[in-house]
């Protein structure tokens, strides 16, 4: 959904993976689900701003998936369709619904992914670089103007295999998001405040350290903001929660239509926590797709009531 | 310290263990430290209310330990001194400063501990039953009048070995506190809200589920309150954090001198998080002993600023 009263131009561009997932939990196994970081992030962002996706799928990408993007008002001008099959991932969650094992990864068309930013996206004020190879994240940065605000997600694989490229990307973005273990791995520090300061010393003004079911923390020169996770009754499928969190907060920031202030980030991160909580309540995008601005505001009010003493 | 303007009577009684600890972390090893749940809880509570301890030590209990209790204004009328040696515990923390292995436990006089509530404590309005055998917790409940508010801590050992006794205690207290794994073990549920509802259905009005470095959650009929952990720069020794948290929040409630309302609990839990954060910054009671009402209020203000959006 476009945020009312905003221009029709794209406010937020999201780059990342699009996949067809098979997910097993102790309770249930589901095949051929729409997944990938871009799908989750764009779906979450779509409630707050006009969002465009940059990703690649194969010729087998099911029409019901693009229909879903359309239904959510996600612009797909940056969606490439290449000869071959769509990226596929299969994983199984442990009893605790946190730890998971990857059963299979078929990169398929994603192996040769070269992100192309459509002309109409190049002036978008907000950019979310999903968790892809730092070299590709850098390619995207070359294709855009000077966005108001760029966030980059990353993961342990790139810290291990592409540290130099990652540090280059980190030096050129406003916000970096990664999980607690990755923050320690990247910085060599243990305490999260020290990890965050190490990262900030290399460029970004903000660092968001994700702690899964325990929420996240925003670090800046002005201190720490503790972002809780919204406590859902039951987690049915945690896949995509981190992507929806990032998409939700970047979407919210983009919808504000101004250079974000710290106060904007704090509120946007709570919106991110809210949309992520809808995601984990169902498989794939089922939980986020069915929301409305009203259900999101209602859960946001509930979350505020849980944290304000 | 007695809370100013309160009566000289004991406002909070804490029952539990007193021990001499040897603690090793990856960075440091320290011997013959004052420890035990009562020591940590009373030290934390002493900043907010007049607190009395019930516990047992051996003839070898060092005078500097009772001096420390005295210095902190902790009443020791309930401290029994028995023939034999004081309880000793030795443990080593992993690199993550969370997981620990017990190297040795010498129960000594604690093995035959039979808590006796001194007459002058029997009408104390607040009671914290530290983590001891449920049978002993029940003995304490028989010796007191009808306290305004009773909280009980417990652990996995009692869930396994004394479930019936534990359920009896749970049915007779206002608040139960335990960690997330124990809440799941006790209730057979997985989601923490469900765990808490199961426990509340067996008696207590409030359940506080502790999550270590990730804070805690307060459950009641009126919903959830998310208690963050105060993010310290460096954890030097996590021993006693949970006890200080419980002592801090019960001390704060006791200092208010009224039947606590939910709003009181929310604020008191944040004070608990603050005093626990001072504890983990140093070994033993070193971190909490050196605080003042001013340093506590200052960190409380900092914590509020980290959670209010």
Structure description:
- The structure is a homodimer of 309-residue chains.
- Chain A has one domain: Ribokinase (UDP-N-acetylmuramoyl-L-alanine:D-glutamate ligase, 3-Layer(aba) Sandwich), CATH 3.40.1190.
- In chain A, α1 runs parallel beside α8, α6 packs across α7 and α8 runs antiparallel to α9.
- Chain A has eleven helices and 13 strands.
- Chain A has a nine-stranded mixed sheet with strand order 5-4-1-8-9-10-11-12-13, sandwiched between helices. A four-stranded mixed sheet of chain A has the order 3-2-6-7.
- Chain A has 309 residues and is an alpha/beta fold.
- Chains A and B meet through α7, β13, α9 and α11 of A and α7, β13, α9 and α11 of B.
Distance between the termini of chain A: 34 Å
Helix content of chain A: 25-40%
Radius of gyration of chain A, in Å, reads 18 Å
Strand order across the biggest sheet of chain A?
5-4-1-8-9-10-11-12-13
* Main sheet attributes: strand count, strand direction, barrel closure of chain A: 9 strands, mixed
Share of β-strand residues of chain A = 15-25%
Order of helices and strands of chain A: EEEHEHEEEEHEHHEHHEEEHHHH
How would you state the average pLDDT of chain A, rounded?
95
Low-confidence stretches of chain A: 1-7
Structural class of chain A: alpha/beta
CATH superfamily of chain A: Ribokinase
Name of the CATH architecture of chain A? 3-Layer(aba) Sandwich
The CATH class assignment of chain A is Alpha Beta
Q: Which chain pair shows the most residues in contact?
A: A-B, 30 and 30 residues
């Amino acid at each position: 959904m476009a945020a009312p009263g905003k221009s029709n131009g794209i406010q937020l561009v999201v780059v990342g993976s699009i996949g067809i997932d098979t997910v097993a939990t102790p309770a249930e196994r589901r095949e051929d689900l729409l997944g990938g970081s871009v799908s989750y992030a764009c779906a979450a962002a779509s409630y707050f701003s006009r969002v465009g996706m940059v990703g690649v799928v194969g010729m087998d990408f099911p029409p019901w998936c693009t229909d879903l993007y359309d239904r959510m008002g996600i612009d797909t001008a940056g969606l490439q369709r290449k000869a071959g099959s769509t990226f596929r991932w299969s994983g199984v969650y442990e009893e605790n619904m946190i730890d998971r094992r990857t059963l299979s990864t078929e990169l398929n068309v994603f192996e040769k992914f070269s992100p192309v930013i459509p002309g109409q996206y190049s002036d978008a004020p907000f950019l979310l670089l999903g968790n892809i190879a730092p070299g590709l994240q850098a390619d995207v940065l070359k294709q855009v103007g000077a966005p108001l605000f760029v966030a980059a997600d990353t993961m342990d694989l790139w810290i291990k295999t592409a540290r130099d490229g990652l540090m280059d990307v980190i030096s050129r973005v406003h916000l970096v998001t990664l999980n607690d273990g990755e923050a320690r791995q990247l910085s060599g520090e243990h305490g999260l405040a020290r990890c965050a300061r190490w990262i900030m010393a290399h460029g970004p003004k903000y660092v968001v350290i994700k702690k899964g079911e325990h929420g996240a923390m925003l670090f800046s020169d002005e201190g720490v903001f503790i972002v809780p996770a919204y406590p859902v009754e039951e987690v049915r499928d945690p896949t995509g929660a981190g992507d929806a969190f990032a998409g939700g907060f970047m979407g919210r920031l983009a919808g504000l239509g101004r250079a974000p202030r710290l106060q904007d980030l704090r509120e946007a991160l709570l919106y991110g926590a809210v949309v992520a909580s809808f995601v984990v309540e169902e498989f794939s995008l089922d939980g986020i797709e069915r929301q409305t601005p009203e259900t999101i505001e209602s859960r946001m009010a509930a979350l505020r009531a849980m944290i304000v003493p």
